[in-house]
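F.,

This is the one I mentioned.
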């Protein structure tokens, strides 16, 4: 981190600042130029509050040289992390697919969809039990009962399951959930993230609607700092001025995240587009851009879905999509599963 000190600064104030920084265990290199004084901070600069430094009278500007995330940073972990969920691998050249309905609606529905996506080649089943809906009057999910049905579908099909947690109070209910999803709306629910850092389950962390890539990595850092390093990142579209899609898929987030982090990155084309016909082209782009997997909404009767029917594809469309994705994976040299 580099601090530019204002011209004509108070020497005593500068001494105090240097003493305060050194007290945090950081080394301070001082460079006195003709017009400016520059401090170079060496060590773990996550310990200093950049905004606090910027607000000081004698400080002209502050520039971070190293990223504020450590455990998620590729600099300290050059190899890709490979996350293996019951034989489904994400990262390090492996690509897996999670598929299923937006929400669990009944035993018949979740088991039918689970069997269909399994037959089509999906490795994991998704299904929301606790749903984050914009309106309190919209279907909120089957909650505990939905989780029970999802566990039943896991038992029947053998597919590991992925479902969203909204409240740390529910953590006990999620013990047998293979991947716990943190939805876009909770990406910065820091208390929830800290609790998820203490469990053995894999965490699927979705990017917030209006969050930067660095903020996504800082949220991953919250989980990892508590000990849980099984984190999969998910780009699911961000909010822009564009109205023809529900969100805008930030496809460049994938190579950027891969450059900066060792964690696997998957894409959710369903929530990114909000339109079923866009799911296939965006999924093929996902495989092409080098992502490590997909999470796709599949419903057996989209027009009657209780949530997100417009963006859900049918099982037969999903089956044809999986075949095409395998073709792209062959071209980019990735292994399916
Ligand atoms: C979901 O996966 O059903 C969901 C609500 O996703 P997101 O948090 O990305 O909106
Ligand atoms: Mn949904």
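My design for it:
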């Amino acid at each position: 981190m580099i601090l530019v000190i204002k011209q004509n600064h108070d020497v005593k104030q500068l001494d105090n600042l240097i003493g305060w920084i050194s007290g945090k265990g950081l080394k301070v290199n001082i460079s006195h130029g003709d017009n400016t004084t520059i401090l170079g901070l060496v060590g773990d600069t996550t310990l200093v509050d950049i905004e606090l430094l910027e607000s000081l009278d004698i400080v002209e500007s502050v520039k971070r040289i190293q990223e504020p995330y450590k455990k998620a940073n590729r600099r300290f972990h050059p190899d890709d992390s490979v996350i293996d969920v019951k034989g489904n691998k994400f990262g390090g050249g492996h690509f897996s697919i999670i598929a299923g309905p937006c929400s669990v609606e009944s035993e018949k529905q979740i088991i039918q969809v689970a069997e269909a996506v399994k037959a089509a080649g999906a490795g994991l089943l998704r299904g929301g039990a606790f749903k984050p809906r914009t309106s309190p009057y919209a279907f909120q999910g089957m909650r505990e009962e939905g989780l029970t049905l999802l566990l039943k579908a896991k038992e029947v099909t053998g597919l590991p399951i992925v479902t969203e947690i909204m409240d740390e109070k529910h953590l006990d209910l999620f013990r047998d959930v293979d991947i716990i999803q943190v939805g876009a709306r909770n990406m910065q629910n820091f208390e929830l993230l800290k609790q998820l850092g203490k469990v053995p389950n894999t965490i699927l962390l979705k990017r917030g609607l209006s969050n930067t890539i660095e903020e996504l990595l800082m949220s991953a850092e919250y989980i990892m700092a508590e000990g849980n390093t099984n984190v999969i990142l998910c780009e699911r579209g961000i909010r822009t001025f564009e109205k023809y899609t529900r969100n805008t898929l930030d496809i460049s987030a994938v190579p950027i995240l891969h450059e900066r982090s060792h964690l696997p990155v998957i894409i959710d084309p369903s929530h990114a587009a909000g339109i079923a016909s866009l799911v296939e082209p965006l999924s093929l782009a996902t495989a092409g851009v080098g992502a490590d997997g997909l999470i796709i909404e599949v419903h057996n009767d989209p027009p009657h879905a209780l949530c997100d029917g417009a963006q859900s594809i049918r099982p037969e469309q999903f089956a044809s999509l999986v075949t095409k994705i395998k073709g792209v994976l062959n071209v980019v040299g990735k292994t399916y599963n």
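The pocket of manganese (II) ion (ligand 2) is lined by residues 102, 271, 297, 307-308 (CB under 6 Å).

Talk soon.
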